[in-house]
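Design request, tokens follow.
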């Protein structure tokens, strides 16, 4: 048994040593950082295994807004939608990747949905038509979301060929680029994208202040 154990430890160390962090730097047409973009890497040579989280994620209804404006997740992930307000909500989606409508649900109750197909799901509420949020359901475990400074990092990516994708609610079509990560790439890679965003049409009409990803 001893020689086998030795081989396994060596393999684990060499895998870690050859993995690379891939940083994304996203700006708009005037060079301003772009937040709330979903970045992902799709493996082109060997599909990466996806395992949805064991515990559901949570997107609350709070202050008559969704608690998170953009949520990336993998296929098979379950999301709870707890109503933390003093009023009822009726969250729905008309998106082909997941159509649903909850019954009107009261403060202190919640809806639950499992997202079982890749695609973008636009969320709304039948009671408060300013409520908007997006769930991006991905078929790859390698993803991230850009912060206010327009950066996102996907850590410990194994060598190989990938399609880098960028999604944003104000992009007409995903930006994509093929990248190759060699086993010798031991420093972080940076992929920069300039995004041609459409105007922001969101109207912040919640009577209760902050939330919903508004800046
Ligand atoms: Cu509502």
């Amino acid at each position: 048994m001893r020689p086998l154990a030795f081989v396994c430890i060596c393999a684990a160390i060499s895998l870690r040593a050859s993995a690379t962090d891939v940083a994304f730097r996203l700006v708009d047409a005037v060079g301003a950082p772009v937040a709330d973009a979903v970045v992902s890497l799709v493996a082109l040579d060997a599909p990466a295994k996806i395992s949805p989280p064991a515990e559901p994620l949570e997107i609350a209804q709070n202050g008559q807004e969704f608690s998170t404006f953009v949520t990336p997740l993998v296929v098979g992930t379950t999301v709870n939608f707890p109503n933390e307000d003093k009023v009822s909500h009726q969250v729905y989606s008309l998106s082909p990747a997941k159509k649903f409508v909850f019954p009107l649900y009261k403060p202190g109750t919640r809806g639950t949905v499992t997202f079982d197909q890749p695609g973008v799901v636009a969320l709304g509420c039948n009671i408060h038509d300013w409520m908007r949020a997006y769930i991006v359901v991905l078929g790859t475990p390698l993803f991230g979301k850009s912060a206010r400074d327009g950066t996102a990092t996907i850590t410990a990516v194994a060598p190989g060929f990938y399609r880098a994708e960028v999604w944003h609610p104000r992009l007409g079509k995903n930006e994509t680029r093929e990248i190759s990560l060699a086993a010798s790439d031991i420093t972080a890679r940076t992929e920069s994208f300039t995004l041609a965003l459409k105007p922001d049409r969101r109207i912040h009409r919640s009577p209760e202040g902050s939330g919903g990803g508004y800046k």
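Comment from the thread starter after seeing the answer: thanks! Helices lie at 2-18.
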